[in-house]
Design a protein that fits this description.
Layout: E1 3-6, H1 14-23, E2 27-30, H2 42-45, E3 55-58, E4 61-64, H3 66-76, H4 87-117, H5 125-146, H6 159-168, H7 180-190, H8 193-205
Parallel strand pairs: 1-2
Antiparallel strand pairs: 1-3, 3-4
Helix pairs in contact: 1-3, 1-6, 1-8, 3-6, 4-5, 4-6, 5-7
């Protein structure tokens, strides 16, 4: 076994864990908690100098940033699942992944922090509400797209779906009846057997 994935599943490490499960890769999960002293210790800082999770060591190749990791794993194993490797698909995978990182994740993080992640005294309901309001426009774009086809790139699940669905998972309990396309697409993604195996790890390491 050469692939090591650092980070508890109840963190952004869920993304490379899900990708590894989709690809059928053997891996070792080192359940490093993002808030633990070990994440800032010299041994781990030599792997990820940011002191954050996740990071991977794939037979000596070290990569951090969760979305970069998932794309690396999918691209390395192109043709197996998640990534066909055509220039057209490359462009759309990058498009949706960068869209998730720039248009959506800052807002989902703001919402999650001020609705449940921060200590009660530090939460600001106005910031949570502002994040939800700002999310309406990008989510409407995604909803219109999902209404036309089962997955982001067409009929097949790819790493683009994995990345966007994982970013949006913090909104899984959001009541948004007017986003039926997003809801149905997200359900198709997170009920995949590989996703269920990865998310089951959260119960063990949370």
């Amino acid at each position: 076994m050469t692939l090591k994935i650092y980070g508890i599943a109840a963190s952004r490490a869920i993304r490379p864990l899900w990708a590894a499960e989709e690809l059928g890769l053997p891996y070792e999960n080192i359940p490093l908690h993002y808030a633990s002293p070990q994440a800032k210790a010299p041994a781990y800082l030599a792997i990820n100098p940011n002191g954050l999770v996740p990071a991977i060591d794939d037979d000596g190749l070290v990569i951090y940033e969760s979305l970069a990791i998932t794309m690396y794993l999918a691209r390395k194993h192109a043709g197996r699942v998640l990534w066909d490797g055509t220039p057209r698909q490359d462009a759309h995978i990058l498009q949706w992944t960068l869209w998730a990182a720039t248009m959506v994740e800052p807002l989902t993080t703001q919402f999650a922090q001020h609705s449940r992640l921060l200590p009660q005294a530090q939460r600001d309901s106005a910031q949570a509400a502002a994040a939800l309001a700002a999310l309406r426009k990008p989510l409407a774009v995604l909803d219109a797209h999902c209404a036309r086809q089962p997955y982001l790139l067409g009929d097949s699940f790819t790493v683009a779906d994995l990345n966007v669905a994982a970013v949006l998972h913090r909104l899984a309990d959001l009541d948004a009846a007017d986003l039926a396309g997003v809801a149905a697409w997200h359900q198709r993604c997170v009920t995949r057997p590989a996703a269920q195996r990865a998310f089951a790890l959260r119960q063990k390491t949370a």
